[in-house]
Design brief:
The complex is a heterodimer of chains A (219) and B (234). By secondary structure, chain A is of the alpha/beta class. Chain A has helices spanning 5-13, 28-31, 85-93, 129-135, 196-201, and strands at residues 21-24, 43-46, 50-54, 75-82, 99-102, 106-108, 113-114, 117-118, 122-123, 138-142, 154-155, 170-172, 176-181, 184-190, 207-208. In chain B, strands 1, 2, 3, 4, 8, 9, 10 and 11 form an eight-stranded mixed β-sheet that branches. Chain B has a three-stranded antiparallel β-sheet with strand order 5-7-6. The chains are: A alpha/beta (219), B alpha/beta (234). The interface between A and B is large, with 54 and 58 residues.
Chain lengths: 219, 234
């Protein structure tokens, strides 16, 4: 069975390491915060100016002045801090944030990512994504393996306007976990019950398949 | 005694905002936006504005109110996804739009206020954003040249302010407000609570009064929430 959005978020949570500062993008990445192992401490950065972002507030306790980058009401963890947008992107550009997780419309085998514009149809803007992908050392893309038409989102070259070049290091999809290196997608793990053949069929770019492809362990 | 920056209200604060001017407006989404001055400019009917703001409000609130009346000629923003009228005006070509990476937008405002004419950043290299811009390599990595931004008026919103123009922001409503306050030829600050000089602890000031030319206590803040997300107790 392919993973659902929650499954993808659970698998990405396994990539977090103790002591990391992490920026989570809008959509599936936001869900990752719900599945952090109790054995580690991480702090979430929200690029509108929060470090130490907590869960959604209890009903009735929401504060219009306390939102995340997705404009959702949030809370602060003990030890949190607040800062302006220039300081926030100093953290990002200055590589003080260890991991960025974001969604994508396309990723190429070179690690290029496109996620901000469909010419003539959808123009929402890049927000902080271009700054994040240009500077982060570890970039994990969370997305479905194929688009709504069933076409692969893991391509030889992106067709949409780029957000960043040669920057994505890892991809977690509903079908697989993959690493990008040497201009190819390297298959690391299969989603539970998904075959290597299914992943191959859904991947347009160059796919390197090792002899043994273990199945993901998802609680 | 500090220099007094107090004006009566939004009407007095926005005196001198004219057709064709460039404005900076603080806020992230609807959080920390200068609600009073936006309403005033809708009433004033100033047109052909260039607005520098991270977002463009929603259809019926924030900068969306100026967009509805077609008072904005050009927007300089990083993300405009929550506004259908904006997207319509942009795709039809009625509205000129310059989309720039959020960190570059913040730094360009900061640079404008800090006397730095331009800087190199890796953000946007290899994308449409880099088109026509100087590229230079530092530490083996390509960077693009981005220029500082300034404005005829910067309009910001703070939580507390004093008569000297010192500002304190609340929580994530700080966002772009401090940098924009630095980058306005005239900076207007509207605050939820205006107090006499000497009332605020100097150690806690976020924006020093030197950056603010006009300050007033706003009225009737709606502080609309864009995405109300909550969890249940227990």
């Amino acid at each position: 069975m392919a993973l659902d959005k929650v499954g993808i978020a659970k698998r990405i949570a396994q990539e977090l390491r103790d002591g990391w500062y992490v920026n989570l993008g809008i959509g599936i990445p936001t869900l990752v915060a719900n599945f952090v192992s109790e054995d580690i401490t991480v702090e979430f950065q929200s690029e509108n100016g929060i470090l130490g972002m907590g869960p959604f507030p209890f009903d009735g306790e929401e504060d219009a002045d306390l939102i995340n980058a997705g404009k959702q009401t949030v809370t602060l963890q003990p030890g949190a801090s607040i800062f302006d947008s220039a300081t926030s992107f100093a953290m990002i550009r200055g590589q003080h944030v260890q991991l960025t997780v974001l969604g994508a419309m396309e990723v190429s085998q070179n690690g290029d990512i496109a996620n901000w514009k469909i010419p003539g149809r959808m123009v929402k803007g890049m927000g902080g994504a271009m700054d994040l992908v240009a500077s982060a050392e570890n970039i994990i893309v969370a997305m479905m393996h194929t688009n709504k038409k069933g076409e692969s989102k893991l391509l030889a070259d992106c067709s949409l306007p780029l957000t960043g070049v040669a920057c994505v290091t890892r991809i977690i999809t509903n079908l697989a976990a993959l690493e990008i290196k040497d201009r190819a997608f390297h298959l690391l793990e299969r989603a539970p019950g998904v075959s290597v053949e299914e992943i191959k069929a859904a991947t347009e770019g160059k796919l390197i398949i090792p002899d043994n492809v273990p199945e993901m362990k998802i609680d | 005694m500090a220099i007094n920056k107090v004006v009566a209200n939004a009407q007095e604060a926005t005196k001198g905002v004219e057709n064709g001017m460039t404005l900076m407006l603080g806020g992230f989404g609807l959080c920390g936006i200068p609600e009073n001055c936006i309403s005033e400019m809708v009433k004033m009917n100033v047109n052909d504005l260039t607005c520098i703001s991270n977002n463009a409000g929603v259809d019926d609130f924030g900068l969306g109110l100026l967009l509805q009346k077609k008072q904005i000629k050009k927007m300089i923003s990083s993300y405009v996804g929550e506004n259908d009228e904006f997207e319509r005006q942009m795709l039809s070509g009625e509205l000129e739009v310059d989309l720039i990476p959020q960190g570059s937008l913040a730094e360009r405002c900061r640079a404008g206020g800090a006397g730095i004419p331009a800087f190199f950043t890796p953000a946007g290299y290899g994308t449409e954003v880099a088109e026509g811009k100087e590229v230079r390599e530092f530490n083996g990595k390509p960077h693009i040249l981005e220029h500082a931004l300034t404005a005829d008026f910067a309009i910001v919103k703070a939580w507390k302010g004093d008569t000297a123009g010192n500002l304190i922001f609340k929580a994530a409503a700080r966002n772009f407000n401090p940098m924009m306050a630095m980058a306005g030829k005239i900076t207007i600050a509207e605050v939820e609570e205006l107090v006499p000089e000497g009332t605020l602890d100097p150690n806690t000031i976020h924006t020093p009064g030197i950056f603010v030319q006009r300050i007033f206590q706003g009225v009737d803040y709606e502080k609309r929430i864009e995405q109300r997300t909550v969890r249940q107790k227990g």
